[in-house]
């Protein structure tokens, strides 16, 4: 008999108190050990149309809803007595007649009137909302016949509702449908094409169907059950979408990459790829890496959870940031830690070198830009290297004579830093690369990279040098739309060719349809890297709905503080915990505005940093850069003023014409990153006239306060 857990149970369990959860887990463990135990008190849910629904008593008030047949035992739901029974009375477990997937189906005649989201109380006269683009009512599915709709996984009960639904009404209906059905219908709205779903070859049981695996998990043993019950993060780490599972299971004969917009589960795929390596190869030496220390710490914790609490060091797994792995390997090679050179050290060395060279003057802005983006990034060691290096996207083409005059400045700068015993991080990466490029035995057999869009030239060169080459050795997860640190460059020129081995995820699990649709307007419909690999952003669908995002411009920072304060209080009154809320600003210079707003709401702020702190009971505040990799139920992005976003200080330091476009692109990406940290609620504020990026959100402001 199959013993399964549904994602609806995982969701419901997380809403109980800690003491209630403990009691529920003990009961579920007893169930798995002996479902027929006389100590378990089963009661049939008589009012349910599915006679296989039973309740199990946990204590005086808590009931677990299970579905049991001769071949399966499914743990479906848990709640207080009346709510648990009400859930079971409105549902049944079916095998879809066309797809063959097991589904939890809401019984149509028992579903109460579907609510429509309304404005937040107290905001009706003040807020400027972001409505969906105005258009007359349309019936997007009226041309589909019943068979078409059934083929998309829609339960029979809901076919007529779908055929007669307007686009707005469908968004209200979608949350009552199985995930694969709502996704396929959303894709049809987006593209006008009926998705071609490959299901004909499936021959397993209904619970083993790829669509069913998104909501039901077969528990093979007690350890797997314990892992499912104790997960502290999103359920979709366990319930993989078929598209995600396909990337995890696929064998690649060279470097490979998974991409997708924010919230599509790229990190989840990267973690499962890492786990697959460790489980399949006892001799694997795996590196799981990303651009920052806080994110690498998070990855290490999540990989440990995914490995059922096993010590990943016993599997020869290393989780470090790009700089962390470079520092460790540098120390291993040299016998001492590197002494990093700051930008101030570089600036001083450049100035001293430039003052002693004829043929100038060259501006500090230009020299710093040329050093950071060309000389240091590519670790150029000679004038000949400088003459031949690709100057991708830089309009200061610099002829041979100009480079000859400039090279002594950069050569002297490098000598001065070396005399001081200081190394830039690209120098550290370069030394590690140079050493291991000559070694037959590499430190790692496999490398999995998260947030790969923020890899620079020296980091990518180092990763290629410290990993063995071959099938499934290098795997990258990233989104070009979230590139906020690095200028674009050709991976192929560094020997990393992912052509034909790149996959784009299209299902967004983290961000509501309304927030995703609004924020996606910040970016083009497709992005292409330097090597021609294209990330198509159209056709992405979210798996749940929520309130419309809000954008509000105000006359003063004091008015903005009051808006944010009221919004925070409304979230708390609606049951959102403080630690489930984030407030982000462009830079540290605006952090005082976030502090004041949180304080005005009577809440305590946690300032995000590389330190690991307990967030319980505190609203997280920080810069947009620190938002990377995080998620919250509610997010406020504030201080989106003109000359703050995009940041005027960055614009003023541009040393090359094309860099200006690059600055605007990365500032836009940064804003996108901050907004997409929101799961359910998003508020964007600024002092008039506001950032030019707000126009891309297609809002209209008629009420400034």
**Alpha-carbon distance between the termini?**
63 Å
**How would you name the oligomeric state of the polypeptide chains in this document?**
single chain
Principal-axes geometry comes out as globular
Number of helices: 23
Structural class: alpha/beta
Question: What do the pLDDT scores average to?
Answer: 86
Short description:
This protein has 23 helices and 24 strands.
Features:
705 residues; six-stranded parallel sheet; alpha/beta; single chain; disordered C terminus; 24 strands
Give a description of the structure.
With 705 residues, the chain is of the alpha/beta class. The protein is 36% helix and 16% strand. The longest helix has 20 residues, at 400-419. It is globular.
């Amino acid at each position: 008999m199959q013993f399964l857990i549904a994602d609806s149970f995982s969701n419901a369990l997380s809403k109980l108190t800690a003491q209630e959860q403990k009691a529920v887990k003990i009961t579920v463990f007893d169930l798995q050990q002996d479902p027929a135990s006389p100590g378990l008190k089963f009661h049939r849910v008589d009012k349910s149309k599915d006679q296989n629904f039973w309740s199990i008593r946990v204590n005086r008030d808590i009931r677990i809803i299970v579905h049991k047949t001769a071949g399966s035992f499914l743990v479906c739901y848990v709640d207080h007595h009346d709510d648990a029974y009400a859930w079971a009375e409105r549902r049944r477990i079916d095998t879809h007649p066309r797809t063959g997937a097991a589904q939890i189906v809401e019984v149509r005649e028992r579903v109460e009137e579907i609510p429509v989201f309304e404005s937040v109380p107290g905001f009706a006269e003040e807020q400027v909302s972001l409505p969906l683009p105005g258009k007359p009512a349309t019936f997007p599915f009226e041309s589909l016949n019943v068979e078409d709709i059934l083929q998309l996984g829609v339960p029979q009960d809901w076919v007529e509702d779908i055929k007669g639904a307007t686009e707005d009404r469908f968004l209200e209906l979608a949350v009552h449908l199985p995930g694969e059905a709502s996704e396929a219908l959303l894709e049809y709205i987006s593209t006008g094409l009926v998705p071609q779903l490959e299901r004909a070859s499936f021959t397993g049981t209904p619970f083993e169907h790829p669509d069913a695996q998104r909501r039901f998990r077969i528990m093979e043993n007690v350890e797997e059950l314990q892992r499912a019950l104790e997960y502290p993060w999103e359920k979709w780490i366990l319930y993989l979408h078929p598209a995600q599972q396909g990337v995890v299971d696929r064998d690649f004969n060279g470097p490979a990459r998974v991409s997708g917009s924010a919230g599509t589960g790229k990190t989840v795929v990267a973690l499962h790829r890492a786990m697959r390596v460790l489980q399949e190869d006892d001799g694997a030496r795996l590196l799981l890496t990303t651009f920052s220390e806080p994110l690498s710490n998070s990855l290490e914790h999540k990989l440990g959870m995914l490995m059922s609490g096993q010590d990943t060091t016993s599997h020869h797994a290393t989780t470090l940031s790009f700089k962390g792995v470079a520092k460790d390997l540098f120390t291993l090679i040299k016998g001492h830690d590197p002494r990093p050179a700051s930008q101030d050290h570089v600036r001083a060395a450049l100035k001293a070198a430039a003052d002693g060279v004829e043929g100038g003057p060259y501006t500090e802005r230009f020299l710093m830009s040329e050093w950071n983006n060309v000389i240091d990034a590519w670790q150029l060691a000679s004038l000949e290297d400088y003459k031949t290096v690709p100057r991708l996207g830089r309009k200061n083409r610099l002829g041979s004579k100009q480079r000859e005059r400039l090279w002594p400045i950069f050569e002297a700068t490098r000598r001065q830093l070396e005399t001081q015993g200081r190394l830039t991080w690209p120098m550290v990466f370069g030394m590690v690369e140079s050493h291991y490029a000559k070694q037959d035995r590499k430190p790692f057999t496999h490398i999995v990279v998260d947030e790969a869009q923020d890899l620079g030239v020296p980091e990518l060169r180092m990763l290629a040098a410290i990993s063995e080459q071959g099938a499934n050795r290098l795997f990258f997860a990233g989104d070009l739309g979230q590139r906020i640190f690095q200028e674009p460059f050709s991976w192929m020129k560094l020997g990393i060719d992912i052509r034909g081995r790149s996959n784009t995820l299209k299902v967004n699990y983290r961000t509501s349809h309304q927030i995703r649709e609004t924020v996606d307007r910040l970016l083009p419909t497709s992005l292409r890297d330097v090597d021609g690999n294209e990330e198509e952003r159209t056709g992405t669908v979210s798996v749940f709905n929520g309130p419309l995002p809000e954008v509000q411009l105000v006359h003063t920072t004091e008015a903005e503080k009051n808006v944010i304060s009221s919004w925070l209080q409304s979230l708390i009154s609606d049951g959102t915990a403080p630690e489930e809320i984030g407030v982000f600003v462009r830079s540290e210079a605006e952090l005082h505005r976030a502090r004041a707003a949180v304080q005005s709401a009577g809440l305590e702020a946690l300032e995000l940093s590389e330190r690991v702190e307990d967030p319980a009971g505190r609203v997280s505040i920080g810069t947009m850069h620190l938002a990377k990799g995080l998620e919250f139920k509610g997010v406020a992005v504030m201080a989106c003023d003109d000359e703050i976003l995009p940041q005027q200080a960055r614009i003023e330091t541009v040393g090359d014409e094309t860099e200006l476009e690059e600055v605007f692109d990365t500032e836009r990406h940064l804003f996108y990153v901050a907004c997409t940290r929101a799961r359910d609620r998003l508020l964007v504020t600024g002092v008039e006239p506001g950032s030019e990026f707000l126009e891309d959100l297609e809002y209209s402001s008629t009420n400034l306060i």
